[in-house]
């Protein structure tokens, strides 16, 4: 049986949402990808939905209402039960070295990928974790 991870895409840009969904469906053969339009919606989804399988968050940084940095601060406050089931990958087009350092040093972030989403690189990186 093929492993099909559950994805939560936290991204405010509609075009990036559509492109990332299509890439994930093609490469991972997933039927459903949960979309949150900002970090606040992502935190609320995590608090409201219990899943019995590990899942992956693809997190944008620059978003209205609650950006990716604020999401990571709120994520830290969640229960260990929730945090233990999650892998966070940041998707960003930033070139700011301070932002990149912050992301890479965050204890919850597995990796940082540049936009547009390099799905094959992600798949190779993801599969090495299992």
Automatic annotation (TrEMBL):
Q: Which residues carry this modification: 4-aspartylphosphate?
A: 60
Q: What top-level branch of life does the organism fall under?
A: Bacteria
BP-aspect Gene Ontology terms: phosphorelay signal transduction system
Give the record's keywords alphabetically: Phosphoprotein
Q: Does the keyword Transmembrane helix apply?
A: no
> What InterPro entries does this protein's entry cite?
CheY-like_superfamily (IPR011006), Sig_transdc_resp-reg_receiver (IPR001789), ST_Response_Regulator (IPR052048)
Note one Pfam family from the annotation: Response_reg
CDD domains attached to this UniProt entry: REC_hyHK_CKI1_RcsC-like
This protein's record includes keyword Phosphoprotein:
yes
Give the matching Gene3D superfamilies.
Answer: 3.40.50.2300
Ranges of residues in domain Response regulatory: 6-130
| UniProt-listed PROSITE patterns | RESPONSE_REGULATORY
Q: Which PANTHER family match?
A: TWO-COMPONENT RESPONSE REGULATOR, TWO-COMPONENT RESPONSE REGULATOR ARR22
What protein name does the entry list? Regulator of RpoS
